[in-house]
Design goal:
single chain; alpha/beta; 408 residues; 39% helix; disordered N terminus; 15 helices; 3-stranded antiparallel β-sheet; 8-stranded parallel β-sheet; globular; disordered C terminus; 18% strand
């Protein structure tokens, strides 16, 4: 249907109650013969998305430093928004009056909203967890708010993303087995309440489909129990949460190693808040289909760029007179047009354009990497592609970056 936008133009927007939301969400095309890597397709109300896929993070309704035309130009059709931040500003009810988050921000692709659980639980001294939910103080003005499974489902339905996430408790790292067990059990009870609330709000016919979240910290028995419990519920996708919260990268990979075999093959698998290029390749190898992380956009604003030669920092003096692009092998329009010396000049003078160009380049790098992953899976040579990438990065700088994600 044609819906007028505030700019006076028309955009084709799927109706809020869209029968397409009831079609099969995920098609698994094949699994690699020599590892658990998978190739699939997500069919969402606003876009068809090929997996494995990386989602740029648009925490407050914007992928920082980017226009949505640029995001789409790079090939991204699925981005992430943050329930916690959008609830506080500008408010989910205000966004609902605009017709939902897609219309409010002017994005015609697909969206996923997280539940805000990670942000709420990272507030530490500003929140209190009970069986009912979480009471927290806003870091903006100190006001008190309550998140429950029911209220979070209402907020996410107001936002109207294609994929919405159940409200969970994200335990800290490190956590004792006893704390992780209590937290996991509470997450399971909240998951059932989220499903009931989602159904009362129209279920998948609303245009939003609900994913569940596996917790259990770093404990193999808890992760197995959580994966099995969450998979037994009628969620249409399963996320692995509670990683990239401060644990060493090798610990995250260990957790994935004993969690992934317990997830159903017929539903998409989403690793929340991960990660570096190395993380993506290793996690795809273990069977992950979906990723999000603020890393490529966050470090771009600090002058760090991913290249075919590894990770580099544009402030280094070596780039001051470099007439070539920061990555001569990169086909993105930043590398086609601008020298490394110019990018360094922009960064050194704190010009806004420096952040924009660095962000565009880093997201182009991630888009190209994930396209390479999909192409290699189609050709039956993913493991060879993975090793080739590691070898190229090692030859360039010897650096295999292991930054964590965090909030945008």
């Amino acid at each position: 249907m044609q819906t007028p936008t505030r700019a006076g133009r028309s955009a084709t927007v799927p109706p809020r109650y869209n029968k397409r939301a009831l079609e099969p969400l995920f098609t698994l095309h094949h699994t690699a013969t020599d590892c658990a890597a998978r190739r699939g397709t997500l069919r969402l109300p606003h876009a068809t998305v090929e997996t494995p896929v990386f989602m740029p993070v648009g925490t407050q309704g914007t992928v920082k430093a980017m226009t949505f035309e640029e995001v789409a130009e790079l090939g991204f059709r699925l981005i992430l928004g943050n329930t916690y931040h959008l609830y506080l500003r500008p408010g989910s009810k205000r966004i609902a009056r605009f017709g939902g988050l897609h219309d409010f921000i002017g994005w015609d692709g697909a969206m996923l909203t997280d539940s805000g659980g990670y942000q709420v639980f990272s507030l530490k001294d500003l929140r209190k967890i009970t069986e009912e939910g979480v009471r927290f103080r806003s870091q903006l003005d100190g006001t008190y708010h309550d998140f429950t499974p029911e209220s979070v489902m209402e907020i996410e339905h107001d936002l109207g993303a294609d994929i919405i996430m159940a409200f969970d408790e994200c335990p800290p790292y490190p956590a004792t087995w006893e704390y992780a067990k209590d937290s996991m059990d509470r997450t399971h009870r909240w998951a059932e309440r989220c499903l009931a609330a989602h159904d009362r709000l129209g279920g998948d016919a609303s245009g939003s489909t609900l994913f569940g979240i596996v917790q259990g910290s770093v404990y193999e028995d808890l992760r197995a129990a959580s994966a099995q419990f969450v998979s037994s519920l009628p969620f249409r996708g399963i996320a692995v949460g509670g990683v990239s919260v401060g644990e060493p990268p090798e610990e995250m990979r260990r957790v994935l190693g004993f969690t992934m075999p317990h997830l159903p093959a017929d539903r998409p698998r989403y690793l929340m808040g991960v990660g570096t290029p190395a993380d993506l390749l290793d996690s795809v190898m273990m069977g992950v289909d979906m990723f999000d992380c603020v890393l490529p956009t966050r470090i771009a604003r600090n002058g760090t760029l991913y290249t075919s030669r590894g990770r580099v920092h544009i402030s280094n003096a070596r780039w001051a007179d470099e007439q070539n692009p920061i990555d001569p092998e990169c086909p993105c329009r930043v590398c086609r047009r601008h020298s490394a010396a110019y990018l360094r000049h922009l960064h050194q003078t704190n010009e806004i354009l420096g952040s924009r160009l660095a962000t565009y380049h880093n997201l182009a790098f991630y888009a190209q990497l994930m396209q390479g992953v999909r192409d290699s899976l189609d050709a039956g040579r993913f493991l060879a592609f993975r090793e080739e990438q590691f070898a190229r990065w090692a030859r360039g700088t010897g650096e295999r970056a292991e930054d964590s994600g965090g909030d945008a």
